[in-house]
Amino acid sequence: MTSTTALEGLLVVDLAWVVAGPAIGRALADYGATVVRVESRRRLDAARVIGPYLGGKPDPQRCGLYDTYNAGKLGLTLNLSVDAGKEVLWDLVRKADVMVESFAPGQLARWGFDWDRLHEVNPKLVLVSTSLMGQSGPLKSFAGFGNLGAAIAGYQALAGQEGELPIGPFGPYTDYVGPRFGLVALLAALEQRRSTGLGCWLDVSQAEAGVQFLAPAIAQTAATGVIAVANGNRDPQFAPNGVYPCVGDEWVAIVARSDREWARAAETMGVQNDAEPTWRTLAGRKGDEQRLDARVAQWTRSFTAGHVEEVLQRCGVPAHKVASSADLVGDPQLAARGHFVRLPHELGGESVFDASRFQLSETPARYERPAPHFGRDNEFVLADILGYGSEHIARLQEGGVLD
Amino acid sequence: MNGSLSAYRAIDLTDERGLLAGQMLAKLGMDVIQVEPPAGSSARAMAPFDGQGNSFYWSAYAAGKRGITLDVEQGRGKELLLDLVARADFVLDSADPGRLDALGIGPKQLMERNPALIHVSITPFGSTGPKRDYADAELVLWAASGPLYANRDASGLPLRISVPQAYLHGAADAAAGVLIAHFARLKTGRGQHVDVSVQQSVTQATLASHLAAAIGHENFTVLAGGPKAKPGPRTLDLSGSGARTRKSKWRVADGLIEMHLSMGPATGGSTNNLFAWMKEEDALAEELQDWDWKTVPDRILAEEISEDDLEFARTCVGQFVQSRTKADLMGEAVRRKIMLAPISSISDLLESPQLRARGFFARVDEGGQERVIPGAFAAPARGLFAQMLGAPTRGQHNDEVYGDLLGIEDVERASLRHKGVI
Known about the structure:
Chain A is α/β, with parallel strands linked by helices and about 400 residues long. Helix content of chain A is about 40%, strand content about 15%.
């Protein structure tokens, strides 16, 4: 075991908010980067007011969404609309390796932090700008949350029952996809900086990131004109491929990936192959899918989802309960993986957040502090990182610069 | 220099469950050598297909890589793999847990050959734990991770996204994981194993609603519109981001748009801007003229605004938008800061002026056929990304890799081919 962390020594200024931007800094903090999350009490991060909340009590300082995307970061409250606040940010910029921001395109420049100036002040700095549409193009000013990104990126048309008004995916889907690409691009930019000595500006569009996850459908439409649409839970290559009702308002997902898997599932369900000879082949099952689904549902309705999962998995057929939040916290697999991390919180009780999504054998993620409450680390950031004296800090405090 | 990672090489053993990871690295210039069994990767059997049965999934996510065939189950094949690994910086795999160990080419064995190697395993539930050997499928992973529970239609039926997503979340995380491990290697000189569980990756697609029980928020409402969503304060959506509001799809003249009537201090301004526009057009009913959507939640809690009032507001908005086109609404939305978007179809995406202006799509050649696929995932960042190449045909780079990289002569290559090793 080594005491090295992968990203120790990296200073990150995190001006981002909600999910897509903060998720990038969160991953860096897990692996040893010093991430200063800059925010303002005057304009609450939406992630602080969406919930869920500790104990169900609405409190912007105890919100699970904020906590999971900001764990491990240092918290600095700063009023960027006043010059003294901007001065503090410039001081951070001078020392930083990375800045992540998710303001509307152009906002940072209006505050005087345009890329040319940032690059001149600190040529090593890598700037990650994450926005819905990107920093250029006719729709660059189009603002909004990820549910709009999910619409523009095509996802809102891709979840629903065939032929009905689509329901779209859950929540701001491109917010989940965007930071995956932003993080990889940022790490590549840091690698490039090792040889060039220069940072660069990364313009990450959440909508474009979303389209990356639709690439096969893009290639298909471009080549054949066929357009992917919402098709319930069905799959062109598997049947059954569905979600079925169980006792107690529970649901279970079941998939047969091959005729052999269907034969095993059918035996478990008590479906006589002789009674349904056409179901032995995928083509036969696809051609009679409504009846097939009804027959599967007739069986699942008598059992709990957990029971169905267990008996089908025992014979190697993919099945899983449609897991609720309570199921996930009780899931032995996630528990064995240490997925839910619990740390004492300075304001009382615990903060619970997701573990890193990759486990590194030699330099594992470290969870050193929960996400910050307002201004928790002002003193540390200003005194220890920026070297401000106590009078300087008191002046900022009194001037409302640290609100 | 062609791309920021062009100094590095990856041996990519993944199937459809991990194919994207290597592609993200290849787009950044890494020499990613996709290894297929001599009969071809199972990812080539993933829908959708063209008229000749070629997989667009393969086109999309093997693009940018070099491709070789190799039977790692034969002794000589395993030796060749170890020779490749000795010349590589990364190995990517998505085999069932324990399978590569059984073949003698698991992470430990490969790292004995190359101690600086970073090896990532992308598996459905992780390489460890009681469910590691569970049979997996896209829909089953979506069920096991949270987002399926949350996404219901009006009947309460959980619905997935019809273009498969789950494995992509895991693969994209794997690309980040190996690069973070790479920064550790720069300090220590040593490689390590990176373990990715698709289940854990997909938990990120729930807007943290999957954490509700873990933090004791028992009644947190996540149902988007199922039969259990009761009207009233408990189902208020203050986020404006789509988590819990019941009405977000609106029919307009030429399709659908996405828009929440968002409320509350953080996002109510958007709906205020919409109402201001309606007022200008004389389309705002008298009863709604004094509504401030920033304070609507408080007024609902104070019982000044009822569910019927909200429904009336929705009806007025529905009438206002139904005669307008997606483009008109989008134009006004940008001008007036209304959080609204047209719902794109896949063909809308291909024709999008925005994506075109940004040069987002790449045209690549795949065995003589043109394919259109998404290109770089950040712009403009000169030099960060490599020129896009099409997906390899089966064994397309065997001669290059076995000949030039491993120095195997023509005669032996013919023999390996004859024995079905390559």
